[in-house]
Amino acid sequence: MGTRLGDWVDQRSGWRQSWTRTFLAKIPRLSWGHTLGAATLMAVVILVVTGILLTVYYVSSPSDAHQSVQYVTNVVPLGWLIRGLHHWAASALVVLAIAHLIRVIMHGAYKYPREFTWFSGIALLLLVFAFGLTGSLLPWDQRAYWATQVRIEVFATVPFVGDWLARFLQGGEEISGLTLSRFYAAHVWLLPLLLFGLVWMHLRLVTRHGISSAPDEEPRVRRRAWRR
Length: 228
Ligand code: HEM
Description:
228 residues, Cytochrome Bc1 Complex, Chain C, 0% strand, binds protoporphyrin IX containing FE
């Protein structure tokens, strides 16, 4: 019965091929470094779940944003935990994504045929920074304001387009309610959409090419054979 139902669904969805490719694929001997991609993905999942929960109470207007965050932290049951998880997972994501990138460089896993996996990874890293920039303004307190001010001043130093970029990010000549609105829209709509698309593409490419083995694995096997 189980297999017949499985066949019925498979003929219509092709789930068996995806399942085999993802979970039953042959993989090389892996190191702890190979777990960093999955750990990065875990941080993304925690951020998405806690982020959705935070939007239940967060209000993105200049008069209420700060109070709504205080309300989540001090009044909403377990609100402090959800906010804390979102905050620490965001920091962990940056560290894990960079550690994952270093592992990829050390194993030379960016080379043929994994160039597109690498490019999508670079785009993901830029996206992670964009999440950081837009998210840190949302608490709408002194720290959020001045941290954003400093970052926007850095953008303003970009040759030729710096001034335009700073005005575009702020929605005017200075940080205001408009900045808060556009950072919020980017943080909860635009960037997550890009994130889902890029993560999907990244993982599709990983399953397509398979995980690369550590570069020293081959010679070690050969060396052992030679000694014998
Ligand atoms: C949100 C960020 C990211 C997520 C969720 C993610 C997720 C993953 C996962 C689950 C894997 C398979 C397991 C592994 O090799 O560790 C992987 C592989 C890979 N990732 Fe990422 N990654 C991210 C960012 C990056 C970055 C920043 C780069 C580099 C620019 C990158 C480049 C690669 C490459 C080249 C592979 C293939 C490695 C191999 O076959 O050995 N990724 N990624």
